[in-house]
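Retry 2 of 3 after timeout on previous attempt. Resubmitting structure tokens to design endpoint.
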């Protein structure tokens, strides 16, 4: 997903450009892990919340110690899912039969961390991008499998019944997508300021026609019965989803270059002019102009 709404109000934390590492406040941790009012630190909250599942507890504690991420629950709500309709979400801690989601999340977060470590090894400038100390709110949808996830500030809501979250690969891609939403907002809604004109022109030209949109689609994710997720109507301001899918394409192409030194298919930036402009803009804004893909 992926994202229904991204609030414009963020704290001053803006990613690795900060000299102080970001952290989740204890008050926010208590909202993620309710029911342990006697705790005065996050590890106590995690210990109490996961006490009935020692394996999940070990995962949650290790995740917090390694990355600052806290795995808790979201509130019960009836959300307006746009084209998805109204969706009933209830809190669901990732324990028992849902523990696999915590396993996939933990592995995904570490994989993303490893990606940035390798990509910026010995580089003079790191990315203006945050991927640590994120609130992970696990929920379960009733009678639906959407949304898979959505981001609000430095918080990702994760649906254990989400249709995209059935494997480690699906979880990792979805988390990278959602983390971009958080960073986009922290950069003053960058995508709407910078990419909106080209995005609107593409939609005006193609509508929802898959064949027309294919050269412009950064990623292959499709909406069942619809079009590319990057261009799906009635999904908020679509440029946000387009830009998050563009970030996923950046991660995929840079990962392939790190692993193999070449791409198996044509680079996104080597497509239509709109692609080249969007690619350069996102690479310069968020990723310190770091691009391992050769010029077209």
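Retry 2 succeeded. Sequence:
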């Amino acid at each position: 997903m992926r994202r229904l709404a991204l609030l414009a109000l963020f704290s001053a934390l803006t990613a690795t450009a900060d000299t102080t590492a970001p952290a989740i406040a204890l008050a926010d941790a208590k909202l993620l892990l309710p029911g342990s009012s006697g705790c005065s630190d996050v590890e106590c909250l995690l210990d109490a919340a996961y006490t009935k599942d020692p394996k999940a507890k070990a995962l949650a504690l290790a995740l917090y110690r390694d990355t600052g991420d806290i795995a808790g629950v979201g509130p019960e709500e009836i959300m307006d899912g746009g084209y998805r309709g109204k969706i009933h979400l209830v809190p669901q801690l990732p324990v028992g039969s849902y523990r696999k989601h915590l396993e996939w999340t933990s592995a995904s977060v570490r994989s993303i961390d490893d990606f940035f470590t390798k990509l910026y090894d010995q580089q003079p400038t790191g990315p203006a991008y945050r991927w640590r100390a994120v609130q992970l709110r696990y929920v379960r949808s009733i009678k639906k499998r959407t949304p898979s996830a959505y981001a609000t500030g430095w918080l990702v809501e994760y649906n254990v019944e989400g249709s995209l979250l059935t494997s480690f690969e699906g979880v990792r891609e979805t988390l990278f997508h959602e983390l971009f939403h958080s960073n986009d907002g922290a950069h003053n809604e960058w995508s709407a300021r910078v990419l909106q004109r080209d995005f609107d022109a593409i939609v005006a030209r193609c509508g929802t026609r898959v064949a027309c949109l294919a050269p412009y689609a950064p990623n292959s994710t499709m909406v069942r019965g619809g079009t590319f997720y990057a261009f799906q109507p009635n999904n908020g301001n679509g440029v946000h989803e387009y830009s998050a899918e563009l970030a996923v394409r950046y991660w995929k192409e840079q990962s392939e270059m790190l692993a193999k030194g070449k791409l198996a298919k044509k680079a996104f930036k080597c497509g239509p002019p709109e692609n080249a402009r969007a690619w350069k803009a996102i690479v310069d804004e968020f990723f310190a102009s770091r691009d391992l893909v050769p010029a077209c």
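Attempt log closed. Residues 1-19 have pLDDT under 50 and may be disordered.
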